[in-house]
Automatic annotation (TrEMBL):
UniProt family annotation: Belongs to the ABC transporter superfamily.
Superkingdom in the source lineage: Bacteria
InterPro entries for the chain: AAA+_ATPase, ABC_transp_ATP-bind, ABC_transporter-like_ATP-bd, ABC_transporter-like_CS, Oligopep_ABC_C, P-loop_NTPase
The keyword Plastid appears for this protein: no
Keyword Membrane attributed: yes
Name recorded for this polypeptide: Peptide/nickel transport system ATP-binding protein
Pfam families, sorted: ABC_tran, oligo_HPY
UniProt keyword list: ATP-binding, Cell membrane, Membrane, Nucleotide-binding, Transport
GO biological process: peptide transport; transmembrane transport
Length: 318
């Protein structure tokens, strides 16, 4: 369970005025072992903030995050924090920026092993790096090359190999294929799925792309301006989207149900996350908004097993 409130945002912004962090509030979910929860939403909705909170890059000011039943804020500060860091890893969006260009691939992949003190013998490190590169479909001889000698898709495989070095159980994947060509995206996603099945990995998968999420997720959480507005099983979300924002996102996917329906553009702009609209923050863009929506923020409530935050759904007029 995970919950973060606005005072935390204000502290971060006061402390580092040039760093922009999106507020996240009232976001609560759990991910069963071996499953994938995807968070979707337009940029600025707080998805990356959630990702960074989970791996301890940011501290929540309220609420809590638990991994394997243990509070992570306490665990990150405890003597055995290294064990938690080993078990949680993150894959970032941009494989160009996240790989040190001056290091050989072998050194990049080996870094978590040496940093965590898991392996010290050079021959054992080399063997493990070769194994990891094979796991993601690269050649063990690639360890002698530099990142610039690889394509975007190959670089993301290198990032994945590095993330897997410590044998993590939980991977936070923040838009892992968004920087890649469409043709390469599917290859990387398939590798991630295969690795999940083989190694029983659990994923938090972040994307703005519902087609990608459809391929990867078991459960989907839709975020809007720092809040979870719908949380549902994947099949249910695509078959019966409840929240008007979820419907808008689904309508923007080209012909997902092969109905010959025209693609509808997502309407309107995302408001400034630092100054969200009153009431339901989606109201300026919502076709179902009424007076209540402008003043009263809808709580996330359960409808037939689906969590939705919308007055129209609660009133039975959606
Ligand atoms: Fe639209 Fe109102 Fe529902 Fe918000 S609460 S999504 S404005 S109908
Ligand atoms: Mg992001």
């Amino acid at each position: 369970r995970f919950d973060v409130s606005p005072p935390w945002l204000n502290r971060v912004i006061e402390g580092k005025p040039r760093q922009f962090v999106h507020a996240v509030d009232g976001v609560s979910f759990s991910i069963p072992k071996g499953k994938t929860l995807a968070l979707v939403g337009e940029s600025g909705c707080g998805k990356s903030t959630v990702a960074r909170l989970l791996v301890g890059l940011y501290q929540p000011s309220a609420g809590q995050i638990a991994f394997d039943g243990r509070n992570t804020a306490e665990w990150f500060a405890a003597k055995d924090a290294r064990d938690l860091r080993r078990r949680l890893q993150m894959i970032f969006q941009d494989p160009y920026a996240s790989l040190n260009p001056r290091w050989k691939v072998g050194e990049i992949v080996a870094e978590p092993l040496t940093e965590q003190g898991l392996l010290t013998d050079p021959a054992a490190i080399r063997a493990r790096v070769a194994e990891l590169l094979s796991l993601v479909g690269l050649n063990p001889l690639d360890s002698e090359k530099f990142p610039h000698q690889f394509s975007g898709g190959q670089r993301q495989r290198i990032s994945i190999a590095r993330a897997l070095a410590t044998e993590p159980e939980f991977l936070v994947c923040d838009e892992p294929t968004s920087a890649l060509d469409v043709s390469v995206q599917a290859q990387v996603l398939n590798i991630m799925k295969e690795l999940q099945q083989r190694q029983g990995l659990t994923y938090l998968f972040i994307s703005h792309n519902l087609a990608v999420v459809r391929h990867m997720a078991d459960q989907i959480g839709v975020m809007y301006l720092g809040r979870l507005v719908e949380l549902s099983e994947k099949g249910e979300l695509f078959a019966r989207p409840r929240h008007p924002y979820t419907r808008m996102l689904l309508d923007a996917i080209p012909d997902i149900h092969m109905t010959g329906r025209q693609r509808v553009a997502v309407q309107g702009e995302v408001p400034n996350p630092l100054n969200p609209p009153s009431g339901c923050s989606f109201h300026p863009r919502c076709p179902l908004a009424n007076e209540r929506c402008k003043t009263e923020r809808p709580a996330l409530m359960s409808f037939q097993g689906v969590q939705v935050a919308c007055h129209a759904v609660a009133e039975g007029r959606a």
